[in-house]
Design a protein that fits this description.
This protein is of the alpha/beta class. The protein has 4 domains: 292 residues, 3-Layer(aba) Sandwich (Rossmann fold); 161 residues, Succinyl-CoA synthetase domains (Rossmann fold, 3-Layer(aba) Sandwich); 75 residues, ATP-grasp fold, A domain (Dna Ligase, domain 1, 2-Layer Sandwich), CATH 3.30.1490; 127 residues, 2-Layer Sandwich (D-amino Acid Aminotransferase, Chain A, domain 1), CATH 3.30.470. The strands form 6 sheets. A 7-stranded mixed beta sheet has the order 9-8-11-10-12-13-14, with helices on both faces. Strands 23, 24, 25, 26, 27 and 28 form a 6-stranded antiparallel beta sheet that branches. The protein has a 5-stranded parallel beta sheet with strand order 2-1-5-6-7, with helices on both faces. Strand 3 and strand 4 form a beta hairpin. Helix 6 runs parallel beside helix 7.
Length: 712
């Protein structure tokens, strides 16, 4: 349950504005101006030693001079003075504070020290703090703006969407866009550097608020990834939705985030995987972010994901067909029932996407066709692509009315940026995208994926795996190598076998004679691997031979490998003679421990699929069976596996089981290892079993990433 003091940041009975100014052109003048012009009925105390009255209100020289301990203090003073002011707040008994000024952890070592000092004071007096380097809070439902964001002075409508943002500047943009979109809001907060309260604290407060249906979060990074995932689960239990715009996903974006807020952005791919796995709608533009929030707040989920597109031109119809294919959205058939509802069906071309063509001016045609399509059970969502049609206002009105009447998920793209046309759609809470075709299709794709997630979640009967002790002997293996960066090959194989992985048979040798004996014992064909301690990429170093079929080939390859190892300064030669395992396909499995979310599992088909096409999937551990299955089915190369399954090769089931075993390993060995790279795993057409052909297990925390560098 959230700290009840968080509510005081949105519903204070008394507010002290420290550093208040009468000049609204200054940031320090905005909190007082906003409160005075708002519906706030509580007590407002300007604090400034250089004034006795501001805007008709008595002004106090210091917090300690206030007639009462304010519920909330808004600090609009220089960063260098903030610590002393917060100390005075603590002495006066202030419960919460918003620190608006910049100059803290985002601004170098001196700023970091100032923030640490501020944090110590907040803890000393048990003050909950929003910021520093933030724009404050706005309770839109009750009209209480406590900050200096310029959007707090806008005519925002009360509604079911709450916005939490690391960025103050983008929060202002979102406020403006919300007014333009006729999207009502419940709360807004810019929380800056998150010295104390973070996005999770505000998300939890919003989720527990009865007026809020959607929590829209603009984040640069998370302080507590697992807690955010728990909140996503809580949102589903409450029938609410979390929509996210994550910035700082690229390398350059992450650097910018660090420079701006001193916050680690984290791996963008891991964030995206977490959002997908736990039903958080992820977006990548402001348009899609607000559009998804508006859709989730007012429209049903499109259960089947089949889309019907209505356009005003043939070229528009072709473009929408192309875009639907690009984003993997299925175009719905038009049912006979729907066709029968259109009187002009003999002259209209009834295809999807549908072009009104010359029939748009026929009396009643637009109403008939919109109602026919909106009522058609053969589709689940509607999209309007509206160009410069003479009767575009009528078309928009018919579409919006029919969509609302029959409860269909709907969105609109308008090619002419006309406020009066936009207003027609938004009166029915239909997201409108001004020529932003990709943003619209991404929004619909995300909402369809969200509907699929909810269907899987509602149908799931399995419970989340419960942690268990590691298999017998695993701790002994790890303890024996606790001061080494990597497990030796023999120990790696032993540990993986303890978790049920089948590994290729091998023998370690030190001479050609021993290699020959081992090869004849194992049986040709074999391969050779040169063993050098802590060498992560043996193939790249030329330490893995090709397929060897007889003693003559063995002599040639062993001699070459021996010379190669000596070039690395190896005096004592150790070579693994390993059975060659015939296989038709290769798979890569991996594990890393993400600093934000914890254990992350990777899976992809090997070779060109992973290295060139970047076709791999990530999920957080622990995995359920349905999550492991979804992980595999999300691969672009999944049809290859499905085709093999159709021929009687149960690789999908075997890979699912392998992912679950790796998930167990990830959870049970957390804090004892840092990464696992099982690459490749061989899949053979004549066996249902998977065989590990090579693997590394890293123990050194400095090496905590997947060793396939193309995966990150």
């Amino acid at each position: 349950m959230y700290d009840p003091r968080v509510r005081l940041l949105f519903e204070p009975q008394s507010v002290a504005i420290i550093g208040a100014s009468s000049d609204p052109s200054k940031a320090s003048g905005l909190p007082l101006r906003n409160l005075v012009k708002s519906k706030f009925t509580g007590r407002v105390y300007p604090v400034n030693p250089r004034a006795t009255e501001i805007n008709g209100l008595p002004c106090y020289p210091a917090v300690t001079d206030l007639p009462e301990a304010a519920d909330l203090a808004i600090l609009m003073v220089d960063a260098k003075l903030s610590a002393q002011v917060l100390e005075d707040c603590g002495k006066r008994g202030v419960k919460t504070a918003i620190v608006g000024s910049a100059g803290f952890s985002e601004s170098g070592r001196d700023g970091q020290e100032r923030q640490a000092q501020l944090s110590d004071i907040a803890k000393k007096y048990d003050i909950r703090v929003c910021g520093p380097n933030c724009h404050g809070t706005f309770n839109v439902l009750k009209g209480i703006p406590c900050g200096y964001d310029h959007s707090y002075a806008l005519p925002l409508n009360p509604g079911p969407v709450a916005i939490a943002s690391h960025s103050g500047a983008l929060l202002g943009v979102l406020g403006h866009r919300a007014v333009q979109a006729n999207q009502g809001l419940s709360y807004m907060v810019s929380n800056g550097n998150e010295m104390d309260l973070d996005l999770c604290d505000f998300t939890e407060f919003f989720l527990e608020d009865e007026s809020t249906k959607v929590v829209a979060v603009l984040m640069e990074g998370l302080k507590d990834g697992p807690r955010f995932i728990d909140l996503a689960q809580r949102a589903h239990d409450l029938g609410k939705t979390i929509v996210v715009l994550k910035v700082g996903k690229s390398e350059r974006g992450a650097i910018t985030t660090m420079a701006h807020t001193a916050r680690m952005a984290g791996s963008g791919e891991v964030y995206e995987a977490a959002f997908r796995q736990y039903g958080i709608i992820a977006t990548d533009t402001v348009e899609a972010f607000l559009g998804a929030a508006q859709m989730a707040a007012h429209q049903p989920v499109p259960a089947g994901g089949r889309m019907l597109v209505m356009t005003s031109s043939g070229a528009g119809a072709s473009l929408m067909a192309d875009k639907a294919s690009e984003y993997g959205i299925k175009l719905a058939d038009i049912s006979d029932q729907a066709k029968e509802r259109i009187p002009q069906r003999r002259t209209a071309i009834l295809t999807n996407p549908f072009d009104t063509a010359g029939a748009s001016r026929s009396p009643g045609f637009l109403t008939d066709v919109c109602e026919a399509f909106a009522s058609d059970p053969a589709n689940d969502c509607l999209l309007m692509y509206l160009g410069p049609l003479a009767v575009r206002h009528d078309y928009a009105r018919s579409f919006a009315t029919a969509s609302a009447k029959f409860g269909k998920t709907a969105a609109a793209i308008i090619m002419l940026s006309e406020p009066d046309v936009r207003d027609i759609f938004q009166a029915q809470h239909i997201p409108v995208f001004d020529a932003a075709t990709d943003a619209c299709l991404k929004t619909l794709r995300g909402y369809i994926d969200y509907s699929h997630f909810l269907a899987r979640r509602n149908a799931a009967t399995e419970e989340m795996p419960v942690g268990r002790p590691a298999p017998a002997g695993v701790d002994v293996i790890l303890q024996a190598h606790r001061n080494e960066p990597m497990l030796p090959q023999a120990s790696t194989v032993e540990l993986l076998r303890a978790y049920g992985f089948r590994c290729a048979s091998y023998q370690s040798v030190c001479s050609l004679d021993d290699a020959t004996a081992a090869a004849n014992k194992l049986g040709y064909p074999i391969i050779l691997k040169g063993m050098i301690a802590n060498m992560a990429h043996r193939s790249d170093a030329g330490l893995v031979s090709g397929k060897i079929s007889n003693d003559g080939e063995l002599y040639t390859h062993f001699t070459a490998l021996e010379n190669r190892m000596r070039s690395f300064g190896q005096e004592d030669i150790q070579v693994n003679v390993e059975s060659f395992v015939p296989h038709d396909q290769e798979v890569i499995l991996g594990l890393k421990y993400d600093t934000t979310f914890g254990p992350v599992i990777l899976c992809g088909l090997g070779g060109i699929f992973t290295e060139i096409l970047k076709d791999y999937a990530l999920r957080l551990a622990p995995l359920t069976m349905s999550e492991a299955e979804d992980m595999l089915s999300s691969l672009k190369a999944f049809p290859v596996l499905r085709q093999a399954a159709a021929k009687g090769m149960p690789h999908i089931a075997s890979l699912t089981a392998a992912l679950l075993r790796l998930s167990d390993l990830a959870v049970e060995l957390r804090g004892k290892i840092s990464a696992v790279d099982i690459n490749p795993v061989g899949l053979s057409s004549d066996s249902s079993q998977l065989t590990v052909l090579d693997a590394k297990i890293h123990l050194d925390e400095k090496c905590g990433g997947f060793q396939n560098e193309n995966a990150y």
